From TrEMBL:
Coiled-coil residue windows: none
The protein's name: DUF1697 domain-containing protein
UniProt xrefs under Pfam families: DUF1697
Endpoints of the signal sequence: none
Organism classification: Bacteria, Bacillati, Bacillota, Bacilli, Bacillales
Length: 188
């Protein structure tokens, strides 16, 4: 059994693809998944399953389409993946502090989680940015913004990699790790 996170892409954004978290939780439970929890409205669902990732992802995407009437991508990560992502943060405290000072009151640290590896030439096209930094590590792209993510060319260009992905801020990543530990500590 593994603790999974289903990270739904593009729900409850700008009034589109609306899904209530209580209904999403009920759908996951109806699929026979255990210890289901949701976190905030952007589509983070934690649960326990013994299924393999790829067939599970497809099953979830199909169930969401059947239940809510639209198709979205689901990016799956296990608890071990989230722990690894947090442990391998490539930016120093000084770099993060400088970004936060340049953009007070805004989130500056994000992780894009990809469904598959992008082609090397697509990564090379990302280039460099005056205000923003990124680091590609496997299926994740760490991003550090010195401005709003909404104003970032890096953020726009990530979509040009040609692979399905979803982005979460660092606070969300840490909260997901914390929720995984809570699920792990619960009696079977």
């Amino acid at each position: 059994m593994a603790i999974y996170m289903a990270l739904l892409r593009g729900i409850n954004v700008g009034g589109n693809n609306k899904i209530k978290m209580a209904e999403l939780k009920t759908m996951f439970e109806g699929l026979g998944l255990d210890k289901v929890r949701t976190y905030i409205q952007s589509g983070n669902v934690l649960f326990v399953s013994d299924e393999e990732s790829d067939p599970l992802r497809i099953r979830l995407e199909n169930a969401i389409e059947k239940t809510f009437g639209f198709r979205i991508r689901v990016i799956l990560r296990k608890q071990t993946d989230i722990d690894r992502i947090i442990a391998r943060l490539p930016f120093s405290e000084d770099e993060i502090r400088a970004a936060a000072e340049a953009s007070p009151g805004k989130e500056v640290l994000y992780v894009a989680m990809l469904e598959e590896l992008p082609k090397p030439e697509a990564i090379a096209r990302l280039g460099t940015y005056e205000k923003d930094k990124y680091h590609v590590e496997g299926l994740e792209i760490y991003q550090l913004f010195h401005q709003s993510i909404l104003d970032s060319k890096l953020s726009v260009n990530l979509q040009k990699l040609g692979v399905a992905m979803t982005v979460r801020n660092w606070k969300t990543m840490n909260k997901l790790a914390e929720l995984c530990k809570e699920i792990e500590s619960e009696a079977p």
